[in-house]
Amino acid sequence: MSGKPSTLSVIWVLVERDLRTLVKSPFILINRTIFFLIQLFVFAALVSKLATALGFNYFDFYSVGAVVSTITSIAFIIGEDLFEEEELGLLDYLLSLPFGHSLFVIGRALGGAVRGLIYVTPMMILVAYVDGYFSPVGVAGSLAIIFVLATGISGLSITLAMMIRNANRFDIVIALAELATVRVSAAIYPLVYMPKVLQPIASYSPVTSASDLVRAIVLPGYTAGAYETVVLLLFVGIFFGLGSAFLFRKIEGGRFE
Amino acid sequence: MLVIMFINFMIDLGVSGLSLGAMLRNLPYSYFLYIAPGANLITATVAAFQSGRDVWRERIIQDTQQYLLTLPVPKNMFAVSRLVSGILRSVVTTLPGTIVIALLYGLSFPYFLVGLLVMFVYSGAVAGLSVAAASMANSLELFATVRSTVQVYLSFFSTQFYPSGNMPAFVAALSNFNPMTWALLIFRELPGSSNGALRTGSLDVTQFVYLVALSAALMFIGFLLYRRTMEY
């Protein structure tokens, strides 16, 4: 062996490792797929029957939100992986490998996002088909938006994993964060029906922005633009930075048990 | 932990419940009140699975189960006590939520106690499921998958979000074997001052018997599977 591995090859190795975890985790893959199908064809279909006086098709609205909420919950898994690696003592080993810690953070966040994207691509195609949208370019654009959201959520999840020491507390906080990011957003219901006090918060949610942007592409009559794009990118920037900062503090501070 | 779980419940109820309730104003009853007890039952499920996670961690991560089994407690009693602790943990965690539901429904104190009893029996069902999952899973991935599957089943294949009359036949059939369906039915039928529109007057002791039977069966399965892990 000669020389240091290039930055891109290190990132690829880290992303590939997370992708291998995906292949080795058939239960999660099957479970999330079934969960998504049940959300769409049981929950959304049955609630749509109740929601007959809305003036819009709730099933179509929810279908896009289901994809966005699924990628959100999948992107949170990367934090759980890091927490488990730390519990098992594997994180120490990974950090001793010959590449920079910044590359480790970037690789893991991207790995989480790519993994999420692979999960939801068939779901996005199914939703586009069910909603009567057939442009491959539009579907690719929707997937790009979803990927950006997943990168930010991965950063948030890594941040939480590095901040919390207790396993039970981590479990609950991650579930709470997932619940809050999805529920306080326009993923599963329009902002106008949310409690007034939460509407301004939800309007700044990256999940709202991603849902609005994808709906504007896939569903007729929905609009979104620069504001949603800026909110989404800001979220990614902030949590990617925070995740890195906390991981650095942990790595450099020698706080391992 | 209690505070976080209560926040969890309040997000479920105060955000999703109110939003869906505002969206479905065309119904002859308050949809917010209709789904409110479900939010508390889901919190009970999450709390029960925390107990299951402890059992799983003792077996797989901490490797302390063998030590615990050397303590001077018969194995059967040890297994039963873990199930009971899961139930109590779940009931205590959801107590604030149960009070909120009782206030929303305008229940009198005796009916609040009936509601508490329903939470206790339901918690038995989910404690049994969580210990069963913890006993079968050898990886966190499998445990998390079972936990998530159980939550999906309890939520979407029950009457938490929609009446059984609106369900396709196979979903309605599955919902009959779901402890949440029976717990919700009893909750909604409790005579309160604010939930009159939800009540159909169909409450009788049979529904309670169904809930108890399902709960006892699931606890027994959890007991047997947990007990089996102690023999290897």
Structure description:
The complex is a heterodimer of chains A (257) and B (232). Helices cover 77% and strands 0% of the residues of chain A. Chain A has helices spanning 7-23, 26-50, 58-75, 77-87, 90-95, 101-130, 136-163, 167-183, 199-203, 206-218, 226-253. Chain B has one domain (2-229). Helices cover 76% and strands 0% of the residues of chain B. Chain B contains 9 helices and no strands. The A-B interface holds A 25, 27-28, 30-31, 34-35, 38-39, 42-43, 46-47, 49-54, 58, 80, 84, 87-88, 167-169, 171-173, 175-176, 179-180, 183-184, 188-190, 193-195, 198 and B 1, 4-5, 7-8, 11-12, 14-16, 18-20, 22-27, 31, 46, 50, 53-54, 57, 61, 140-142, 144-145, 148-149, 152, 156-157, 161-162, 166-167, 171.
Notable traits:
heterodimer, A: 257 residues, mainly alpha, 11 helices, 77% helix, B: 232 residues, 76% helix, elongated
**Which outline of chain B best applies?**
elongated
- How much of the sequence of chain A is in beta strands? under 5%
Helix content of chain A: over 70%
Order of helices and strands of chain B: HHHHHHHHH
- The helix tally of chain A amounts to 11
Radius of gyration based on Cα positions of chain A? 19 Å
Q: Helix proportion of residues of chain B, in percent?
A: over 70%
User: Would you identify the regions of chain B where 5 or more consecutive residues have pLDDT less than 50?
Assistant: none
Q: Biggest interface, which chains? A: A-B, 43 and 41 residues
Rg of chain B, Cα atoms, Å: 18 Å
Classification by helices and strands of chain A:
mainly alpha
Secondary-structure element order of chain A, as H and E?
Answer: HHHHHHHHHHH
Q: Determine the N-to-C terminus distance of chain B.
A: 33 Å
Helix and strand arrangement:
The complex is a heterodimer of chains A (257) and B (232).
Chain A: H1 7-23, H2 26-50, H3 58-75, H4 77-87, H5 90-95, H6 101-130, H7 136-163, H8 167-183, H9 199-203, H10 206-218, H11 226-253
Chain B: H1 2-23, H2 31-61, H3 65-69, H4 75-105, H5 109-136, H6 140-156, H7 169-175, H8 179-189, H9 205-229
Helix pairs in contact in B: 1-2, 1-4, 2-4, 2-5, 2-6, 2-8, 4-5, 4-9, 5-6, 5-8, 5-9, 8-9
